[in-house]
Design a protein that fits this description.
The chain has 263 residues and is mainly alpha-helical. Helices cover 81% and strands 0% of the residues. The chain has one domain. Helix 1 crosses helix 8. It starts with a helix and ends with a helix.
Length: 263
Amino acid sequence: MSALEILAHRILWSFAFIAVVLLIQRKPYVFKYLRDVRNRQTLLIMSGLIGLNWFIYVFAVNSDRIVEASLGYYINPILSVILGVMILKERMNALQVIAFILACSGVLYLTLDYGKFPWVAVVLACAFALYGLLKKTTQIDAMPGLLIETMILSPIALAIIVYQILVGKGVLITLSPRMGLLIVFAGVVTTLPLYWFAQGARRIRLSSVGFLQYIAPTLMLFMGVFLYREIFTTAHQISFGLVWCGLLLYTLSVLRDSRARPD
C-alpha cells in the first residue's frame, strides 16, 4: 500500500469510528464549534497539521525510516516545552531546566550523528508540536474536535480511495478480507491515542506533555531494533542515556512538586 492510500483509510475510518462513538453518547452539540469563525480557522489548521503528521509518519515507516521517525518524536517534546515556555509563559524549576538540557543534548547528539538534515524528523516534530499547542489553547472538547478535523479531511480521503478502486488498485478489493478488516480498524487505533492525547494536553502543563511524549519514540526505536532488526549504534546508546537521565530528573521534580502541594 502506498503512504497516500494508507493515510486516506486512516482518515476515513477514524471519522466513521468517532461519529459512531458520539452518536452512542448522544452529543448533539458537536457542530456548535463551527459557528465561531475562530474555531473554524483553528480546526482547519489542526486538521492540516494532523493530516501532514500522519502522512509523513506513514511515509517514513513505508520507506524504512523508522529511526528518523523516532528522532522526530524525540524532537517534538522539546518543541512542546519551548512553545509552553515562550507562548504560554509556563515556568520550569531548576531540576526541570537540567532535565530539558539533558534531553536537548541527547537529541542534538543523535541529530549530528545522523549525518544529514533529517527532514522527515523535523516535519513530524513541528507538525505535532503545533497541533499540541492548539489543542492546549482551544476550548473544543476532544472527541468533537477530532470528529470535525477528520470530517474536514474525509472528502479528500474518500476521493483517493474511490480513485484507487476505479483503477483496480484499491486495497479493499485486492487484499484479503482479513487485511481489509485490519485497515478499517486502523481508524480505531488512530483515534484513541489522539483522544487520550487531547484529554491529557488540556489537563496538564504543555511542558509536562512534552516530556511524557518521550515514551512513544522509545517504543518506536525498540520496534526498529528488536522487530525490524535495525542497528542500535553507540550514538543511540549515548542519546538514550542523556534523554532518560533527563526524564528521571523531570519525574523527580514532578513528584517533589506534587508532594509539596497542600491537599
